[in-house]
Design brief:
By secondary structure, this protein is mostly helical. It has four helices and two strands, in the order ααααββ. The protein folds into two domains: 62 residues; 52 residues, no CATH class. The chain is elongated and about 85 Å long.
Length: 146
Amino acid sequence: MAPARPVGPGFSPLDEELALLPGSLSPQSQDHLARLAIWMPFARAAEMLAALTGVQVSEATLRRQTYTAGAAYEAVQAAQAAAPEEPARTAPAAADKLVLSVDGAMVPRLARAVGGSQNAGHRRGASGSGSGNGGKYAPILFLTHE
């Protein structure tokens, strides 16, 4: 069998199809690397990356990859800032009938009915609200018309 001819560095079309980033790290490892490096010094981030994921990189590689990721994110932000803004949404027309619902957290009961509340006739402090607060508080629903 004849020996294979020597080859030089090349480009794999599969890298582009899989959206792989340059370098030997997976996208997830590069993400972990950048997140650690923005929280702590580069040398400590390299140690933490190795301890948490088993991926070992030098401090210089970590610094270079972090700066590259930062530059890419800065370019994304610049593109977003340069993009035209969406027109402001207009508020919808007011409805004929509005409803306001309150969950009743710490709303005191009243001795009389409030808008036909189911709590009509209960004395302050009566039990039966089911909230475990001694019956002093209960949910109230308010309906308003315009």
